[in-house]
Write a structure and sequence with these properties.
The protein is α/β, with parallel strands linked by helices and 514 residues long. Helix content is 19%, strand content 17%. It has 9 helices and 20 strands. The strands form 5 sheets. A 10-stranded mixed sheet has the order 6-5-4-3-11-1-12-13-2-14, sandwiched between helices. It has a 4-stranded antiparallel sheet with strand order 15-16-17-20, covered by helices on one side.
């Protein structure tokens, strides 16, 4: 790494943790229910983008090595039944912050100019933690909309992360494959020059502006496979059209280091008081353009290289916590917003260079899919000295963090889809959820209860041909036992008619408005 990227923080003497869990380090579930916790550990959610369970070497089912992510598992709890609520990014991100199933609000993948999806009046995880005395921040990918639908990128953006509970926000405006390719800090585009205003359209191109489709010779970093053929920035064409704002547009290779530096600075500024950081890495989402230090290091092409880059950044962040004496008083959750995808729109050879690596692990499907690989993701929780390292088979969903952290910090919340899984998250109990709804594309859902999974009959395509991912959509009901058939190869619906009938009744009950 260059000098700019290298940590120069001197080790500080650990300050006294005056707020600790009442009683012993490991308390019973009953204790949490009857005794108001006095601990306020720092809370960090490290959220990756399109990372499969097989992409993390701690799970032992892939070929990549992720030693820094593995450290979280080795020093905490590795969950074998951890889930995102949806197989796509916007719905999962909505759920982790609101505690609500995304299909209740019809949440789908947002375009880059979409208005803020979460209402400022809505209950959110950062709002709840602010009430508990936390300073809150989101750094990295957001993809939950900005503004009110009448966006002027050259003015202060009135609606965004800061309006739903974050004290500090440094985010990409949309996603790395969508315009505008700029960062937004507390509602203002970073580096925007007054004499070069930024304009964005998802309907038509601006006169005279080049596109990947019409000017492929300008795609010096990566060419597109499908879609992603519109405005060009940094030698890569994206979804949507943009004009101007050249000084503000990002360089993909520097994005990871920038987000890391922002996360480190936030922690350093707020080390003397409880903080909540939602550190949302963009890797390995397309376009995969890692820093030159990681190019070719994985042997799996840009996708593998991007994962190694993310693992390094996570290691640097963990080292910062160590150097500041914060590791023992910081609860870390590591996860991904949905399952993996190889070809997601660019010619980066992720599919041809994948070799024997299995990003989906032992599961079927991937991103967008109702099959397990769409939502069954890596999930780990570390709190050194408070959580005993181990492995848990408890059924856990990311949207349970709202209720769980409310319990931990003694906060009251409104009833929601979020369930208090604090005992499972901290390793005091091996019991998690009894059931869980999971979403694929376009609001289609599946239902898990115990080890059984039912996918109702749907109309639609069973294969996304360009991505080469099975959707899980068939015109008949599907029933699988995940404990004996994690790859979902054997549909047991005809063998267990009573079981699937009961499951479908329970599924419909959950689907009712709450």
């Amino acid at each position: 790494m260059n000098d700019k990227q290298t940590l120069r923080l001197k080790t500080k003497k650990s300050f006294i943790n005056v707020l600790m869990f009442a009683g012993a380090a490991l308390m019973s579930q009953a204790s949490f229910a009857t005794q108001a916790p006095t601990a306020k550990p720092n809370i960090v959610i490290i959220y990756t983008d399109d990372l499969g369970i097989g992409d993390v070497s701690a799970y032992g089912v892939g070929k990549l090595s992720t030693p820094n992510i593995d450290t979280i598992a080795d020093q905490g709890i590795k969950f074998t039944n951890g889930y995102a609520t949806a197989a796509t990014c916007t719905p999962s991100r909505f759920s982790i912050l609101t505690g609500q199933y995304p299909w209740r609000k019809g949440v789908q993948i947002l375009p880059g100019d979409a208005p803020l999806l979460i209402s400022p009046e809505q209950q959110t995880l950062p709002k709840m933690l602010k009430q508990a005395g936390y300073t809150t921040a989101v750094i990295g990918k957001w993809h939950l909309g900005l503004g009110n639908g009448q966006m002027d990128w050259n003015e202060h953006i009135p609606l965004g992360p800061n309006e739903v509970g974050f004290d500090y926000s440094y985010i990409m405006a949309a996603t790395n494959d969508r315009v505008p390719n700029v960062f937004v800090k507390n509602g203002d585009v970073v580096g925007l020059e007054q004499d070069d205003p930024l304009y964005v359209s998802y309907k038509s191109n601006f006169p005279g502006e080049v596109t990947g489709q019409e000017n492929p010779e300008l795609l010096t970093k990566m060419t597109y496979h499908h879609g992603h053929d519109q405005s060009i920035n940094n030698g890569v064409s994206r979804i949507g059209y943009q004009k101007g704002g050249k000084a503000a547009q990002w360089i993909d290779e520097d994005m990871s280091d920038l987000f890391l530096s922002e996360a480190q600075r936030f922690v350093k500024r707020n080390q003397a008081k409880p903080f909540f950081l939602f550190y949302t890495l963009h890797q390995p989402h397309v376009p995969r353009v890692p820093n030159r230090h990681f190019v070719g290091k994985s042997g799996l092409g840009p996708r593998g290289d991007a994962i190694l880059e993310a693992d390094w950044a996570i290691g640097q962040f963990l080292e910062t916590l160590d150097q500041l004496g914060l590791s023992d008083n910081t609860l870390i959750v590591f996860s991904s917003d949905n399952g993996p995808v190889l070809n997601d729109g660019y010619n980066d050879q992720a599919d041809t260079k994948n070799g024997q690596h299995t990003p989906w692990g032992q599961f079927r499907g991937g991103k967008y899919s109702l099959f397990e690989a769409g939502t069954h993701i890596p999930l780990m929780v570390r709190w050194q000295g408070k959580i005993k390292p181990g492995v848990s088979d408890a059924l856990i969903s990311q949207h349970d963090l709202l209720a769980s952290f409310a319990s931990m910090t003694g906060q009251k919340i409104k009833a929601s889809d979020s369930q208090n899984m604090l005992s499972a998250l901290t390793g005091q109990s091996k019991t998690g959820r009894k059931s869980l709804l999971l979403e694929g594309m376009h609001g289609r859902t599946a239902y898990r209860e115990g080890d059984w999974i039912v996918i109702p009959a749907y109309k639609g395509n069973s294969l996304m041909k360009k991505q080469n991912i099975e959707t899980g959509i068939y015109p008949f009901d599907q029933l699988y036992n995940i404990s004996t058939d994690p790859g979902q190869q054997h549909n047991l619906a005809s063998q267990y008619p009573e079981k699937i009938s009961t499951m479908l009744k329970h599924y419909q009950a959950v689907m009712q408005p709450n």
